[in-house]
Amino acid sequence: MTHSELDGPGSRAGTRAGRSIAAVRGIAAWAEASVHRRILAATVRVGTANLIARGAFALRELTIAFVLGTSPRVGAFLLAALIPTYLAQVIGSALPMAFIPAFIHVRQSAGAEAAKHLLGGATILVTGLLGVLTVLVLAFFPVYLDFVAPRFAAADRQLATHIVWVLAPFAILRGLSALWGATLNADRGFLLPALTTALTPLVGTVALLLFRGSGVEALAWAMVIGMAGEAIGTAAVLRAKGTKIRLMWSGYAAPLRQFVRLFMPMIAGNAILAMTVVVDQSMAARVSPASVSILYYANLLVLFPVTVAGAALGTAALPYASEMVTAKRWDDLRRMIAVFIRYVALATIPFTIAFVAFAPTVVWLVLYRGAFTLSDESGVTAVTRYLAPMIPFYLAATAVIQVSSALRRTDILLWTPVTGFALKLVLNYILISVMGLPGIGLSTTLCYAATATIALILCRRALTKAHERETR
């Protein structure tokens, strides 16, 4: 039998399969060669899951644009949803940064059972905190509406009040989902928590298409139902992995105090930083009712790539950074910051330049259909061009913030947003008076550039001081 006869289809298929296996093993070996590569590999995995979830979110927003456009009813919905989603964002983003370092530290020092008690106590605290905040929102929403929406018609104001009551459970459910997802992240279970976030926007899209007559009311109910599904699904995954959520109060013990000491300053910092969204939408509402929707759609286009990459980087980096802090590997932490800022610059600067150059085409391709008109397109394009340059600064700040969280430097996590918020207020007033609505986009970019720089300087100083204390 000749060599060519031996080299048949089966042999060639086996060779290709062997090469594929070898390639996969080679990639895996490359990824495990250093902590930075492991974080990068985890970032890619989480980024893929986040891309699916954000794709579901974008689909819902495009459906809103198609079905409802920039009508006053959309503005009423956005103002009503602004405060509940603001609370959900503040608590949901602060929880992983506070809980993961505390959970890892307690598990390594006191054992798995103590970590489970921490989870149960944190669940009770988060539920109680968000319950109180939700009651305050419902009580003071009419006052807020009178202040920010004086140009809204009476029917639209009534609609906004109805929607805020429908959305009352949203923040509580989001907080529980974030806490339980952070528990999975602490064990480097990144994919499932990221994928479950696709449920809420998918339910919203289906509701909009099936109940067009109900419009924004159907969307509000869908948000609550979808978020309940996310929380239940995350709890089920935790239980399947052997972690039962015990709603038993074991007292204000040391592990819970450690979590609260990290959590409360992070809530304050995130609340101040996220308040910029509330300020932007509120100031846009005073320009005109349509400006609220225009700014919202511009944020949608720019924040889609930012949140996909930023959430992936933050989720993947925090457990590794927390372990480095526990091991006091200060040089590795400094190197991690430098490596990821370099990666961010190489990946995002060309992308941002292209985004700004082709903004009209992007807006036309993504949004121009159905109730979304040419005048809406020009308004969104103008804001998008000034907002897009924030992308590199946002992602660079994400890497720095994860290291600051792992270091438990709550002063950095608090005072950096305070500075950024004060700057945002000043820039908004100046630039809106000069440029109109696009001034909000430019002020956001300048604000993120400043806060990223301040956070980087403070974090590097913190690492230097930590290293000096160890060498004394």
User: What is the number of E strands?
Assistant: 0
What number is the mean pLDDT? 78
Radius of gyration: 24 Å
**Helix-strand sequence:** HHHHHHHHHHHHHHHHHH
SS content category:
mainly alpha
Helicity, in percent?
over 70%
So what's the overall shape? globular
Given as residue ranges, the uncertain stretches (5+ residues, pLDDT < 50) are 1-6, 23-28
Query: What is the makeup of the main sheet?
Result: none
- C-alpha end-to-end distance: 75 Å
Number of helices: 18
Model description:
By secondary structure, the protein is mostly helical. 87% of the residues lie in helices and 0% in strands. Helix 4 (72-110) packs parallel to helix 12, helix 13 runs antiparallel to helix 16 and helix 16 (391-406) packs parallel to helix 18 (438-471). It is globular and about 65 Å long. It starts with a helix and ends with a helix. Mean pLDDT is 78; it is low at 1-6 and 23-28.
